[in-house]
Structures are given as structure tokens and as C-alpha cells.
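step=encode ok
step=design start
structure_in=
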């Protein structure tokens, strides 16, 4: 059974956390690689290299802010909705914490198919909630 159009739209909005988290992880990895350089190498950056470091630092900050904003939006969405505790946990793990389905299956000890059904039911319930 596919999701309704409204539930699919909500899912897409909530997936911003997952996308932000993955993008931030990539930028964080680049940042760690950069910091792994010897200290004197970083101090001796050329004028051409400095903007790259600054840009990466700025991008890292932007992504952190976007991730926090999307996480907060998703937390607010889940606060007072009549869904089961399992459904709430699945949505939190996926759209607030940005976990993969493999991680969620491992945390909850249920099959992926079962968790996806619960996930879809919860999205349909959320989609029917009036906007606040």
C-alpha cells in the first residue's frame, strides 16, 4: 500500500533530517581530514588555500544549523499525535536522529517490513493532523 499524497509530502519534508545528517557527516569527515594535517602545515596555508578552509568551516556551520532546525520541526510534529509508542520511536529514530533503516531494525529488533508498515501508518496519521 502506497502513502497518500499528503503523507508522502510530509515524509519528504521529514527526510530533510536524514539528508542533512548525511551531508554533515561528509563535511565533518572533510573537516577531520583537514585537521589531521600537521599544525605547521595549517599555519602555513597559502592565500589560495585559506578560502577553502573558511568555506568548509562555514558549510559545516550551515549544515549543523539546518540539521538542528529540521530535527526541532520533526520533534514538534511528533509531540501530541495519537500514534503508538513504537510508531513514535520509529519516526524519532528515522526523522529526528537520522538513523538508517538497518540501524532502526537493529535497535528495535523487528523486521524492516513490519517497521515500514508502522512507519507508513504513523505518517498517514500525521498527515491527517491539522497544521498548527
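sequence_out=
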Amino acid at each position: 500500500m502506497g502513502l497518500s499524497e499528503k503523507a508522502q509530502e510530509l515524509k519528504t519534508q521529514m527526510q530533510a533530517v536524514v539528508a542533512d545528517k548525511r551531508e554533515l557527516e561528509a563535511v565533518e569527515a572533510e573537516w577531520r581530514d583537514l585537521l589531521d594535517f600537521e599544525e605547521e602545515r595549517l599555519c602555513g596555508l597559502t592565500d589560495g588555500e585559506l578560502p577553502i578552509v573558511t568555506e568548509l568551516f562555514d558549510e559545516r556551520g550551515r549544515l549543523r544549523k539546518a540539521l538542528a532546525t529540521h530535527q526541532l520541526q520533526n520533534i514538534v510534529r511528533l509531540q501530541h499525535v495519537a500514534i503508538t509508542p513504537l510508531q513514535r520511536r520509529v519516526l524519532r529514530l528515522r526523522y529526528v536522529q537520522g538513523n538508517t533503516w538497518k540501524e532502526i531494525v537493529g535497535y528495535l529488533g523487528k523486521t524492516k517490513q513490519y517497521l515500514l508498515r508502522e512507519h507508513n501508518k504513523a505518517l498517514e496519521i500525521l498527515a491527517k493532523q491539522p497544521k498548527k
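step=design ok
step=annotate ok -> The longest helix spans residues 50-78.
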